[in-house]
Amino acid sequence: MNKQILLQMERLRGKMNAAAHRNQNIQHQEVLRLSQSLDGLIVQFMVEKRASQMKKTSV
Known about the structure:
The protein contains two helices and no strands. It is an all-alpha fold.
C-alpha cells in the first residue's frame, strides 16, 4: 500500500509543480488545491507507516 501512495504522491507533486509553472504563481487556486491533496496523501502515508511500525514492535 505504501508504494502505491508514494507513486500517487510523486504524480501529484509533478502536477502541482506543473501548475505552479503554468500559472507562474504558487498561490494560484489550482496549486493550492493540489498541495492540499498532496498533504492528505502525506498524512495517509505517515499513518500507515506508523501502524506498520507498531505492528512490528508489538510482535
